[in-house]
Amino acid sequence: MDVALPLLEAFRKDLYHCSDCNYCVDAVWQERGMDHICATITHHAPVLSYSGRGYMAAARALLEGQALNPETLAERAFSCTGCGNCEASCPIGLRPTQVGQALRETLAEQGVLPPGVEALRQRMREAGNAYGAEPAGRTRWAEGLAFASAATATVNYAPGCAAAHARPAEARAAVALMTLAGERVHFAAATDACCGAPLAEAGLRADAAYAEQALAVRNTAPRLVTSGLECLPAWQRGGVVAGSFAHWLIEALADGRLRLAPKVSRPPTVQVFDSCASRRPGGAPDPLRDALAALGQAVANPPLEARYAVCCGAAGSLSELHPLSAARMAAARVPEDDRLPVVGSDPRCLGHLAAGGLAERYFGLAEFVLAAFDVQGAA
Ligand code: SF4
Ligand code: SF4
Q1: In ligand 2, which atom is closest to the CA atom of 25?
Q2: Beta bridge partners of 259
Q3: Of 233, 152, 150, 154, nearest in space to 192 by CA
Q4: Cys staple from 291: which of 109, 143, 205, 246, with CB 3.0 to 4.6 Å?
Q5: pLDDT for the residue 337
Q6: According to the model, what pLDDT value does residue 98 have?
């Protein structure tokens, strides 16, 4: 018996083409940069129903009318970080990450939510951010900074929840660099709010759409720059000309608005903290390595590592359900060589690592530029 589940129905071809090869579960292929695939399987529970392959099997079963325990299924589906690694590794181009998302959205529509996801929704409604941080603290990072008015701005800066609450130094550094380059930077302190990305990742589509529809009216400058890689697609969906700070930096270096010289004659090599932002379905490109190349910065870890970098546990709803597993994922991403500084461009990852006491030598991209280079700008 087939059952009408439209969100899953859209993936019917994928579901019946899966060969159960297990690449998306635990592939290891050094030459291709694969060293296990699924952070949830590796660091939470080695049980197939927590993997991309497992989500494909569950969706197939539901469409065929099999009765699955909804609470158990929800616990599995919402334990996914949404990192996109299963989808990137599937050798025949199937979409297990998106099937997992469709499962979460289907369960959310039916009102089957794990308590952790209900708590996330409540925090978002009450505090306006996934951290549950006091709303008044959202603009604290900007204290003492001078901003342009909305009418005269060339750039609107939106830090995103992670930079605003968990990585304020990165937000301040981004504004400092844009200002040095001659941008008139506006920050809409009175209306700055979450873009809804944590809700969307948790399958709460209606709640996310409500947060997202407020974005377009908040942007008044010709373009918007954000430090939140998870926020960027939401701004762009609203028709706003938006880019990440890394994009802006690459442009400013290319057109000479920023000129940088290393502060020391032999600058240290850095390690890159590759995020899964580029890989997430509907996600934003993370041009961190391109930005470091534009800076002339030597990097220790090879580019191949970026392709299948396993999630640090910051994203999706996994950390809402299983914070200890999310902490194990973070610990597993700490580079073995602890002598080199680490540079990341996703404040959500850096905030997650810092919360576990793991980010001592870590820099956001803008923080790193200010720490390692003498900066001359158009301003
Ligand atoms: S999206 Fe990431 S965490 Fe979720 S099942 Fe796929 S590999 Fe695992
Ligand atoms: S989704 Fe792709 S990688 Fe995963 S088991 Fe099926 S065919 Fe293999």
Answers
A1: 4
A2: 376
A3: 150
A4: 246
A5: 76
A6: 98
> Residue 1: is its pLDDT beyond 60?
no
Residue nearest to atom 3 of ligand 2 (CA): 90
Give distance in angstroms: CA of 223 to centre of ligand 1.
33
Nearest CA to ligand 2 atom 7: 18
Which ligand is in closest contact with the Cα of 86? Answer: 1
End-to-end CA distance of the chain: 68
- Measured from the CB, is residue 19 less than 6 Å from ligand 2? yes
Ligand with smallest separation from the Cα of 96: 2
Q: Supply angle C-alpha 306, 309, 311, rounded to 5.
A: 140
Q: Is the pLDDT of residue 217 over 90?
A: no
In CATH, what number does 6-112 get? 1.10.1060.10
In this prediction, residue 110 has a pLDDT band, given cuts at 50, 70 and 90, of very high
pTM value?
A: 0.93
Confidence at 268, pLDDT banded by 50, 70, 90: confident
Candidate from 94, 98, 103, 308 with most ligand 2 atoms within 8 A of CB, to mutate: 94
Domain ranges of the chain: 6-112, 135-253, 258-377
pLDDT at 93: 97
